[in-house]
TrEMBL record:
Belongs to the NDUFAF7 family. GO terms for biological process: methylation; mitochondrial respiratory chain complex I assembly. Gene3D superfamilies: 3.40.50.12710. The keyword Methyltransferase applies. It is an enzyme of class 2 (transferase). Arginine methyltransferase involved in the assembly or stability of mitochondrial NADH:ubiquinone oxidoreductase complex (complex I). Acts by mediating symmetric dimethylation of 'Arg-118' of NDUFS2 after it assembles into the complex I, stabilizing the early intermediate complex. It catalyses: L-arginyl-[protein] + 2 S-adenosyl-L-methionine = N(omega),N(omega)'-dimethyl-L-arginyl-[protein] + 2 S-adenosyl-L-homocysteine + 2 H(+). The gene is ndufaf7. Pfam families: Methyltransf_28. Its EC number is 2.1.1.320. This is Protein arginine methyltransferase NDUFAF7. Keywords: Methyltransferase, Mitochondrion, Transferase, Transit peptide. One of its GO terms (molecular function) is protein-arginine omega-N symmetric methyltransferase activity. GO terms for cellular component: mitochondrion.
Amino acid sequence: MAVMLNLCLRFANQIYDFDASNKASSMRTLLWLKRLMPEVRWTMWQNRFCSDSSIQRLESNSSIRKHLISKITATGPISVAEYMREALTNPVAGYYVKNDMLGAGGDFITSPEISQIFGELLGVWCVSEWMAAGKSNMFQLVELGPGRGSLASDILRVFSQLKTVLGETDISVHLVEVSPKLSQFQAECLTGDNTQPSDGDQPVYRSGTTRTGLPIYWYRRIEDIPRGFSVFLAHEFFDAIPIHKFQRTEKGWREVMVDIDPESPDKLRFVVSHSPTLASSILIQKDENRQHVEVCPEGGVIVQKLANRIAEDGGAALIVDYGHDGTKTDTFRGFKGHQLHNVLDAPGMADLTADVDFSYLRKMTGTEVTCLGPITQRSFLKNMGIDSRLQVLLRNCPDPSTRAQLVHSYDMLINPDKMGHRFQFFSVLNRGRLAQYRGMQKNTAPLPVAGFAELDIQ
């Protein structure tokens, strides 16, 4: 823990101004709170960000809904996974392809949008893991689904503050993003739009130089990222990957499907398959005791790829998301205009999400890596020294309104009734990362992984 402790203390003593240019104001924070408490009616925000006329216009032009109805008519009910895939990533009208879903005008606000402290502490975590793993000459920062680029921006600012620690390390930034619109936002945020598009179907479809002088690349697939020591970040990424839903019946497990509502042929409904499907036959664990289960096989494949790379090339992965450790059942939901939205209404016009089953991800990583967590966001940020970091910012912030915003954002991040217990942190590490440490210990010392062990500042 000495490496982590020294790094946190050094970072906390760095003095630089609160960055309010692209952070959530109190209004945006309240909008996030509305997402956590959808039963509260906040008409003022609804009228501003999600007018009835705009919803009706979008719903009337739902090309994906028409496409899905035609497909079901021709081939029969489809899985929830196929429905999610079409609604979110259809190349013509998918939600992530054509919408700006982040921020006050979108459908959700993320932790990096609420406070810069969140990204700064994750930046410290990245450097801490690089140091603990032996200070590789090569350091690839990889983010899956980077949103508007706020998290990466805060992390890169930390890297700049810790130049003397990183030395001459060959650092590069690699973003996996399928949304052309979001990649444009990321380019503007991280490079000032100092990027160049690639020709044809190259693995790298955009590249440039960050504001801090680092090379940065955009990809559509994890497989295209160069091999080498990498720290992978996935913040609110796995919750949007398509899931299969299963229901236990008297005849065994059956898959929940999406079908046309016979009473309203222009609408969709859930049905339970009459017989086993391929997915229900192979995705349910033999020891499963829940009555309803959601499984994300694509998420399992992705975490396997991360685990294989970490085992072979070194590095670590930090996954942050809504989630549980194999206890929840029906978590599939939609968000539109910061309100809960019927998942089957207007596909392609709302964000669809399901809580991440970290017990499933853990099983899928295999035996060549070590997993830590999940632990709550509150615990992780407390362990990372968020209280000390807040005090540093408050001491150097003379503006009362900005100080109040800092405190309010801090509360949003760690309050158990807000984001503190809703989000979970889960890490995948090279197996040798902890084995070497434990081999040097004669007692049961705390795990030397930043964020997953209590920070003891003497």
